[in-house]
């Protein structure tokens, strides 16, 4: 049985309400939270206005997201049919 990474387990457990609303997370952590997606996937999600993916803030050349925003976005996504939570 494959175990979920800690970040995905947090989403599955509905931890967005307990997330620190001020914590900023880097792109690598966002990719992990979203299921180990690529940087290109994040780029595409940011460019698709219909997805309402949270916008990052830039500090220097690095991108950071509010952890609570990413977790809330993930919880709002419909679950795929036939997949366990």
Entry keywords:
single chain; 85 residues; alpha+beta; Arc Repressor Mutant, subunit A; 4 helices; globular
Tell me what the CATH architecture is: Orthogonal Bundle
Characterize the largest beta sheet: strand count, sense, and whether it forms a barrel.
Answer: 3 strands, antiparallel
β-strand amount: 5-15%
The CATH class label is Mainly Alpha
**What is the domain total for the residues?**
1
CA radius of gyration: 13 Å
Q: Extract low-pLDDT stretches.
A: none
Number of helices: 4
Shape: globular
Q: CATH fold name, please?
A: Arc Repressor Mutant, subunit A
Provide the helix percentage.
Answer: 25-40%
Structure description:
- This protein is α+β, with helices and mostly antiparallel strands and 85 residues long.
- The protein has a single domain, classed as Arc Repressor Mutant, subunit A, CATH 1.10.10.
- 39% of the residues lie in helices and 13% in strands.
- It has 4 helices and 3 strands, in the order αβααββα.
- A 3-stranded antiparallel β-sheet has the order 1-3-2.
- The longest helix has 10 residues, at 67-76.
- The radius of gyration is 13 Å and the shape is globular.
- It starts with 5 loop residues before the first helix and ends in a 9-residue tail after the last helix.
